[in-house]
Amino acid sequence: MRDAAYLAAYLREHAIAGAVVTLPEPTPTVEAAAHAAGTTADRIAKSVLFLAASAPVLVVAGGAGRIAYKRVAAHLGVSRKRLRLADAATVLAVTGFPVGAVPPFGHPARLRTLLDAGMLAQPEVFAGGGAIDALLRIAPAEILRVTGAEVVEVVAEPDATGGEA
Questions:
Q1: How far, in Å, CA of 149 to CA of 154, rounded?
Q2: Measured on CA atoms in the order 156, 70, 87, 104, is the torsion positive or negative?
Q3: Local confidence band at 27 (pLDDT 50, 70, 90 cut-offs)
Q4: From CA 7, how far away is CA 54, in angstroms rounded?
Q5: For residue 55, what is the enclosing H or E element?
Q6: Is the CB of residue 135 less than 8 Å from the CB of residue 129?
Q7: What is d(CA 58, CA 104) in angstroms, rounded to the nearest whole number?
Q8: Which secondary structure element, helix H or strand E, spans residue 5, and what is its range?
């Protein structure tokens, strides 16, 4: 299993502008991460692993929004029924990191990555840092550069009834 020390070494070895920040408390949720980092949920970048027709796809989106499965499926050209959230064992097997600590890169194999367009409005975000008590401080533009992500609007828009489209 990979960890925060691995991610810090990965940053150095690949000349990635970012820093792993170790925190005094666990950050298993967006809310906990925002509190620990002294920021807001929209500056937390969650890395969520999906399986699209069994192929892994990493979606990186702001913590304040909900990822719209329909938008992800449409972009990937699969039916909504063929897109599912990876379970914890699959996340660990594919990324090398546990759920709640997955960074946007540093995985055993390069993953197809979708970056929510809204993330690029932030000058700096905090992403999974490789451990439950660590975060990666990085510019979204650097995530884009390192991952070669496809920039897509994947966050659901609230509809008139308060639900999501």
A1: 13
A2: negative
A3: confident
A4: 26
A5: strand 55-62
A6: yes
A7: 8
A8: helix 4-13
